[in-house]
Design brief:
It is built from eight helices and five strands; from the N terminus they run H-E-H-H-E-H-E-H-H-E-H-E-H. It is α/β, with parallel strands linked by helices.
Length: 232
């Protein structure tokens, strides 16, 4: 009888403890599944890489106010599976960009937005040098991943360097876009350049409001591209 009572007591202990642990184990399983799904979604998300200078970096502003971050907010609001990477570097020229492009492309990139050249123009760097550097960056992107969609951001500069240089600089971007069959943002600073209310004190770098307009200019080209990629 005593052995029977001990057995019943032991059985009851095991039974109730087992019942008490079941919900916890189920919660842990569900949590692990959610974590796995989140990781899978992140790994499956396309990458939009913005490769540029201080305009992309958002110089003088909080990083969340730079136009790539505004684009990410737009993407999230539309529930599109893309992650934005801001690879903007203040002061970057096309030559410097050419030198660091391989390092930036260590990850697979779905859409590559090339925003370089403004610092070349402001410094009066020979036009053919700027053109050559941009072409080499485009070549490198395509060599790394032929499926990457490339968007080239057009740029214009004040006529300080003379009309011939200014005109030749402006034409580099549409000519490269046509030659390489890449998408073109006609002028990244459209509706922002020259407007004191939309630029910081230096008259060059957009304010937070100006960055929102840059994001709008970019989205007009980027939006259709990523929607098409998603439907492939």
């Amino acid at each position: 009888m005593r052995n029977l009572l001990v057995f019943c007591a032991l059985f009851s202990f095991i039974f109730f403890n087992s019942c008490g642990e079941s919900p916890k184990k189920e919660e842990e399983i569900q949590s692990e599944k959610v974590s796995e799904n989140d990781n899978q979604e992140k790994s499956e998300a396309g990458v939009i890489l913005f490769f540029g200078n201080s305009l992309t970096a958002g110089m003088g502003l909080d990083p969340n106010e730079a136009f790539p971050a505004v684009i990410q907010q737009k993407i999230d609001s539309l529930d599109l599976p893309y992650e934005v990477v801001n690879a903007g570097l203040s002061g970057e020229t096309t030559a410097a960009g050419k030198n660091r492009i391989n390092w930036v492309l260590n990850q697979k990139v779905t859409v590559f937005v090339l925003e370089l050249g403004a610092n070349d123009g402001l410094r009066g760097i020979p036009l053919e040098e700027t053109r050559k550097n941009l072409q080499e960056i485009i070549n490198t992107v395509r060599e790394k991943n032929p499926d990457t969609e490339i968007i080239l951001a057009g740029m214009q500069i004040p006529p300080n360097m003379g009309q011939e240089y200014t005109s030749g600089f402006r034409n580099i971007f549409p000519q490269l876009a046509e030659k390489n069959d890449v998408h073109l943002i006609s002028f990244l600073l459209e509706d922002v350049a020259g407007n004191p209310e939309l630029n910081q004190g230096d008259g060059i770098h957009p304010t937070a409001q100006g960055q929102k307009i840059l994001a709008k200019n970019v989205w007009e080209v980027l939006g259709p591209v990523i929607r098409e990629k998603r439907n492939l």
